[in-house]
Specification:
Chain lengths: ~260, ~220
């Protein structure tokens, strides 16, 4: 088959899978999409109240809503793509019945849906913020967009690795959610790296998700400049798990067929 | 035609390895109906799934020059939480067929009525099988892979399946695996025998039948 034809077939499969995932994830009613907005809004409300209670002051020029949204959405992108990618194959194993569907397609379709959904949520919340609070300062839109995609890729790569590993070590599926739990507290959702004491910051910046959040806020605000950004380090966290995830998937496929 | 080149497939059974397909190289014509005879556990379903592309061979390759169906007869590939219609839409999309056309055909042929718009998990086994058969008829395959012939639905529906299939066989051919000689005689013009991981094709069904009897 010609390369163009193969590419077209690939897109057709991914498109069909994404439509199907939308159906299973958000339910039959169109209202189901509202659920995608509810979780981030609940988190924002929680942190908002918490900040008022402890009288937390943000650096000058930084609004509360935009601050929380720019921290929360990359975190959710990371968490969602990771858990969705991790369970993509076991949830859809019946679909491997169709020869044109490969395990990797299942993972990519879920990543596509999560990125599209949370990108829309990001735009909706910050759009309302711009309209009603009058705060909009997208300094470097491409950097913001890049940060969001990196968060999605980071989650997908680790999810791919987890799902492949879990064929050999089933406990992985139980351990990953436990490791994920503290991530919301250490990834810059409620703080910026610049607010941390230098010694603490040096340690915290080993967290690739904090790197991404910093990158995103650096792109969003003119008043905020991130230090110690290391994109090569973030890229390694994406490429290495993706590579081993794909290699292990080849080995895992035989086991999946047996099951 | 469908070419198999040095196809091997094995499964671990306990601490042994069961070589189900052992270096099979064969060219299957698609202008004739082909039957494969094999006793239970000789790898008929594995062969069918390798040809369909669901299973990857351990080594060797399968080259399909035609549009091959999924194995008809074991009703996998449906998502229980989605409705019959949604499942049909999905399959139509991945096979690049007209979505509305496929749905109309499947609804009409399966006689599911309003159940077509209900989640598959509410279906009985018979309804599921009816939908699976209807869907395979809704898509224009050039070769239909059939795993045994299992009777689907009641008498009138079976009659309908037979006539739809007879109609389809003017344009498409059949590749059927079975342990039952009657079934093979009914469908196949050329026949092979699968035993001990080896596949041998014979020019006539009678010759294959004699060989199969002698096993």
């Amino acid at each position: 088959m010609l390369f163009g034809g193969a590419l077209e077939a690939q897109f057709r499969v991914l498109h069909a899978l994404m439509l199907r995932e939308t159906r299973t994830r958000f339910g039959v009613h169109q209202l189901g999409y509202l659920w995608a907005l509810i979780e981030p809004l609940m988190w924002i409300a929680t942190f908002y109240l918490l900040f008022m209670f402890i009288d937390r002051r943000l650096p000058p020029g930084i609004g509360m809503f935009s601050f929380l949204t720019t921290g929360l959405i990359p975190f959710m992108l990371f968490r969602q793509t990771l858990t969705q990618a991790m369970n993509a194959i076991s949830a859809n194993q019946a679909l491997l019945f169709y020869p044109m569907i490969r395990p990797l397609d299942l993972v990519l379709a879920r990543m596509g849906l999560e990125v599209a959904t949370l990108l829309a949520v990001f735009i909706i919340i910050l759009g309302f913020n711009a309209l009603y609070v009058g705060e909009l300062s997208v300094q470097k839109p491409l950097q913001v967009l890049g940060g969001l995609f990196l968060a999605g890729l980071l989650g997908t790569g680790l999810g791919l690795l987890s799902t492949s590993l879990s064929t050999f070590i089933p406990a992985v599926l139980r351990v990953v959610p436990l490791v994920l739990r503290p991530m919301i507290w250490i990834s810059g959702v409620w703080f910026t790296a610049n607010e941390l004491p230098t010694g603490v910051r040096d340690i915290m910046m080993w967290n690739p998700l904090l790197q991404i959040t910093e990158l995103l806020r650096d792109g969003w605000y003119s008043q905020y400049t991130a230090h110690d950004l290391d994109l090569a380090y973030v890229a390694a966290w994406i490429l290495i798990p993706t590579y081993f995830g794909l290699v292990l998937e080849r080995l895992a496929r035989r086991r999946l067929e047996l099951g | 035609m469908i070419e198999l080149k040095h196809v091997c497939k094995s499964y671990p059974v306990g601490d042994r390895i069961n070589q189900v397909l052992d270096d099979i190289s064969v060219t299957l014509p698609v202008d004739r109906n082909i039957g494969i005879l094999g006793r239970n556990g000789q790898g008929k379903s594995t062969l069918l799934r390798v040809i369909a592309g669901i299973l990857t061979p351990d080594s060797g390759e399968v080259i399909r020059h035609t549009r091959v169906s999924w194995p008809i007869g074991f009703g996998g590939g449906f998502a229980g939480s989605l409705t019959g219609e949604e499942n049909c839409r999905f399959v139509a999309r991945i096979y690049d067929e007209d979505v509305d056309e496929v749905c109309r055909f499947a609804l009409d042929f399966s006689e599911l009525g309003s159940y077509f718009y209900m989640p598959i998990k509410t279906y009985s086994a018979g309804m599921r099988a009816r939908l699976a058969f209807a869907l395979s008829m809704a898509i224009d395959f050039e070769v239909y892979l059939i795993d045994e012939i299992t009777a689907v639905g009641d008498k009138p529906f079976q009659q309908k399946c037979r006539s739809a299939f007879a109609e389809r066989r003017k344009r498409a051919s059949v590749f059927i695996v079975s342990h039952n000689m009657q079934t093979i005689r009914q469908y196949a013009e050329e026949c092979g025998v699968l035993t001990n991981g080896k596949l041998t094709l014979y020019p006539s069904v009678d010759e294959a039948a004699d060989r199969y009897e002698a096993l």
